[in-house]
Structures are given as structure tokens and as C-alpha cells.
Amino acid sequence: MAILKNVKVNWVRLDPEHPVLNKMDPAKPRKQWELQIETEDKAVRKEWLDLGLKVKTVREDPSDDESKILKYTANLRKMATKEDKPAPPVQVVDAKGNDFDPNTIGNGSIANIRLFQSPYESDGVKKIRNTLMGMQMVKVLKYVSKPMENFDELDTETEVIEPVETTDSAVTASDDSDY
């Protein structure tokens, strides 16, 4: 197990009842819980790399490898099924260890992250798999959904369109139009 301390989290999708669809393998889409972590600190980036995380560098100009580095990010996830059986959801607690509603966690919140690490081999290269297991909230920027803006009230315009009568001779075998 590894614990990442005081990490900024974004795009938290940890609702136990509603994992999101992972479409990485189109032949076998699977549901998962996920979030993104970020840092601007090169030393933290190195720690993440040493743990086997896939860290992405976000630059001011993504097409220019020399442009200013804005931050480093990594995506963490846990599959919602294991061997086609439901897996327990990611545990989310507050600073005192009480259950915490993951649906209220806004981008930029700070958390401690618990990862389960397991070795594996891919194409003859030894790697470390990091599975998101739990999150302890340190500082919460609470996400509150805004009520949806309503449409203006209008009168619906209705027009009756009469079907066009056709004869069999109007449609020929060479008609390639798509319907």
C-alpha cells in the first residue's frame, strides 16, 4: 500500500452506485471509479513516477515541448468489477474517518489517497499496477450543482405536412438514396 499525502484532486467520479464507463478496450468496456490528481512540484512528480504512476506533463502550449510547464497530472482508478463480480467501491472518508459523500467533492479539493500496488509484467517489462482504494478528505471545495436554466416560455409552432403520394414508377431499382 502507498499513501499519497495532500494531493489536489479533480474530476472525482467515486459515486458507489454509479461507476463510469471505461471505453479503453472497445471490445470489453468496463465500469470504474476514477479521479485525477495534480501537482506543480517536480519532487512530487518524481515520487509519483517512482510509485509507477503514469504522469502527464501539462504545458502552456501542448504542441511545444519547450513551453512552460503548468502542472503534472495522473489518473487513478479502480474497476467496479473483479473477475465479473462487483468490487467494493472506493472508500471516501473525512479527516476523522467518517464516511464522506464523494458526490460533493469539487475540483481542487485536497486529499490523502490510498493505493494498492501490485506487480505485473507487460511485453516483458516489469511494472507496478496502482489501484485506487481510498481517499481521506483534508480540504474540501464543495461541489454544489446549480439548478438548470429553464427555457423561455414560447408558443409551439405546429405545421401539418401532408405526405407526398408516389407511384411505383417513381421509385426505380437504381435509386441509391439512403433513408
What does this structure look like?
The structure is a single chain. The protein has 1 helix and 10 strands; from the N terminus they run E-E-E-H-E-E-E-E-E-E-E. The model has no long low-confidence stretch (mean pLDDT 89). Strand 9 (109-122) and strand 10 form a beta hairpin. Helices cover 5% and strands 42% of the residues. The N and C termini lie far apart (57 Å). It has one helix at residues 42-50, and strands at 2-13, 20-22, 30-39, 56-59, 69-79, 81-82, 85-86, 91-93, 109-122, 125-139. Strands 1, 2, 3, 4, 5, 8, 9 and 10 form an 8-stranded mixed sheet that branches. Strands 6-7 form a two-stranded antiparallel sheet. The chain has 179 residues and is mostly beta strands. The radius of gyration is 25 Å and the shape is extended. The chain has a single domain, classed as OB fold (Dihydrolipoamide Acetyltransferase, E2P) (Beta Barrel).
